[in-house]
Amino acid sequence: MKVRVCKLEEIPKLGARRFHFNAGAPIAIFRNASDNVFALRDQCPHKGGPLSQGIVFGESVACPLHNWCIDLKTGSASAPDEGCVERFAVEVVDGVVELET
User: Fold this and answer.
1) Is 5 in contact with 13 (CB distance < 8 Å)?
2) Is 41 helix (H, G, I), strand (E, B) or coil?
3) What residues are paired with 38 via a beta bridge?
4) Is the Cα dihedral 86, 28, 89, 78 positive or negative?
5) What is the largest CA-CA distance in the chain?
6) Is 1 a residue whose pLDDT tops 90?
7) Contact (CB, 8 A) for 58 and 64
8) Is the entire prediction scored with pTM above 0.85?
9) What confidence category does residue 22 fall into, taking pLDDT thresholds of 50, 70 and 90?
């Protein structure tokens, strides 16, 4: 099911917004410099840090706790770190961010 989340401009470039859906874990929606959007569970696979508070660069985010780099397209940690965070399908339709839940 697709959920209309927010307007694209409500997510800062090179930043993220955190959303809660039903009783599930928070989801972070990221926006990079090219206006691409990505959605991940807002929890680093290392120590559970809030990825939505990390630094977005290219198609990655650096966890604010221990600087683990997570690929926004796959949810995988960059080597030498190991781990993966759940990702969600997300797209922008007519300026509105839609998330597949």
Assistant:
1) no
2) strand
3) 30
4) negative
5) 39
6) no
7) no
8) yes
9) confident
Tokens of 34: 């090219």
Top-level class of domain 2-100: mainly beta
State pLDDT tens for residues 39-71.
999 999 999 999 999 999 999 999 999 999 999
Exposure string for 61-98, b = 16+ CB within 10 A, e = fewer:
bbbeeeebbbbbeebbbeeebeeebebbebeeeeeebb
What is d(CA 52, CA 46) in angstroms, rounded to the nearest whole number?
15
Domain ranges of the chain: 2-100
Q: To the nearest 10°, report the CA torsion of 45, 48, 54, 57.
A: 0
Residues comprising the chain, all counted: 101
**Residue 36 token pair:** 């691409």
Question: Is the CB of residue 29 less than 8 Å from the CB of residue 19?
Answer: yes
The residue type at 90: V
